[in-house]
Structures are given as C-alpha cells and as structure tokens.
Automatic annotation (TrEMBL):
Keywords: Amino-acid biosynthesis, Cytoplasm, Diaminopimelate biosynthesis, Lyase, Lysine biosynthesis, Schiff base. Catalyzes the condensation of (S)-aspartate-beta-semialdehyde [(S)-ASA] and pyruvate to 4-hydroxy-tetrahydrodipicolinate (HTPA). Pathway: Amino-acid biosynthesis; L-lysine biosynthesis via DAP pathway; (S)-tetrahydrodipicolinate from L-aspartate: step 3/4. It is an enzyme of class 4 (lyase). It catalyses: L-aspartate 4-semialdehyde + pyruvate = (2S,4S)-4-hydroxy-2,3,4,5-tetrahydrodipicolinate + H2O + H(+). SUPFAM superfamilies: Aldolase (SSF51569). Pyruvate binds at T47, I206. The gene is dapA. Homotetramer; dimer of dimers. Its EC number is 4.3.3.7. This is 4-hydroxy-tetrahydrodipicolinate synthase. The record marks T46, Y109 as: Part of a proton relay during catalysis. The keyword Transferase does not apply. It is found in: Cytoplasm.
Amino acid sequence: MNKFFGTGVALVTPFQADGQVDFDGLKNLIEYLIDGGVEYLVSLGTTGESVTLNKDEKKKIFKFTAETVNGRLPLVAGIGGNNTAEIVEQVKEFDTTGYDAILSASPYYNKPTQEGIYQHYKAIAEAAPLPVLLYNVPGRTGSNISPETIIRLANDFKNIIGIKEASGNFDQFNQILRDKPEDFLFISGDDPVTLPMVAMGAAGVISVIGNAFPRQFSDMVRQSLQGDFKTAQKGHFSLVDFTRLMFAEGNPAGVKTALKHLGVCGDTVRLPLVQVSSKTADLIIKETDKIKG
C-alpha cells in the first residue's frame, strides 16, 4: 500500500458563516493541498468535525470530495464511532467510488475492553468493502488500543492494512514496530512527533497542520522517509511554534484560523467547538506570516 506512504492530510470541513457546509471552500482546500504536493487525503476524520455532521451532509461531502479529487490522489474515508452495529451499516452502505481505504477511530466514551475493541474492528473488517486503517487516539476516545490488540488485528485480518497511531507513547510505538507484519502500515497521527516516528519506522503521517502548510510539511516528511534527517530537522523545527498553536485551543479551530488568513477557506466551526480567542488568533496569524515568508 505504497499510496499511503508520506503525508496524508485530514481535511477540515469548511463552513459558511451560517454553519452550512461551504463546498466552494472545500474545493479550494482540496486544490490547495494537491498543489502543495501531499500524497493523499482523508475525508471526514476527527479534524473534519464529522461528529457534528448529519448523515446527508456526510454523503454529500464524501461524494463532492471524490469528484473534486477525481483520482489525482488516493482518498481515505473516515467512518468511525462507538456504536458497532451502526458503523458496520455505514461501512456496508458506503459508496466506495474514488476511495481507497477507510479510517476508523477506536470507540470513544464506552471504554471497551481490549476484547471489545478487537470484536469491534473484527465486525468492521468483515463488512468493509475497502482496506481498513485503525485509528488509536486515546486523548479523544478515553481508551487505548494495546500493542497486543493491534498486532492481533493485523495478523487476523488481511484487509486491516495499518494504523494511525496517536497515543504519544513511544514504548507502545516500539512494541508495534517490533511485532507488526512487515507490510502493516504504522502512520503517525500526531504532527509534533512525526519526524521521530518516521525515524523509528513509520510510513508517514495523517496530518492536521498539513492543511495550512502542505508543501513545508510534506517536504519534511519525504526528507525523513529518505533518511535525510539533517534537512528534515530544519523543516521540523521551523514548524514547532505553529504546531503548538494549532492545538492551543483545540483542533480544528486553530488550523481553520490559519486557513482563513491564507485565503483558503473560512474559520467557522460548529458547536460545541468555538473559534480561537483573539489573542491566540493573533499569534497564529503572526506565525503563519513568518512561515509563509
């Protein structure tokens, strides 16, 4: 699955000022990212505010994104949740046209056991018409997918092709990378530690900040994958302050502030998220201008 090496970007969902989906803004963003040289795109992940979109909106966004991309880049669809039966139905009904894989976040709030997580993904894998990427993000879900469960899933289901790993736990990274099947993709889900994760063996990243600076970030990731860490380090360090600001008041409010300043799309988010404070917005704009040069 070489198509998922490098930088994938978890697309934000642009909204108009009245909260409706801004399809013109989404088209601008997609073109901006393709021009920026990223390797693939992820539609309706966490960064896409998928939990505040209704079923009809999701279908329209998935279709519009596939039509706009038009085969120019691989596409991943975010389909996850904490009601296994509902997710299985969504996966079965999903129009795969233009899509290459499904990214599914581990169940949130329920706090299932490891066996529960395994059975959740087993049900998804058996129903999925496309390859599946696991997504471990304990900071959002309230539970961790253990290395043992990840390796068990990787070995038991050939269509589970990798994991977006955002636990921030380097001991966990060590165990997964040591024990995983050779062709199982280990993908960073955490922008600030992507460079060291690639050094350990990650295939790349599914990024938030890549929405704003696709060229700078994807260049850094490619340099890392090529083993040119001296050059990659410079790009990595140049983005440290910007990356920190992106998450200072939550994602995707931070990166939408930068995107608005860059003229790509607006900064509206849907409740319960709110726009960043004016103080943080000023800092983001200042840092955006500094990187843009």
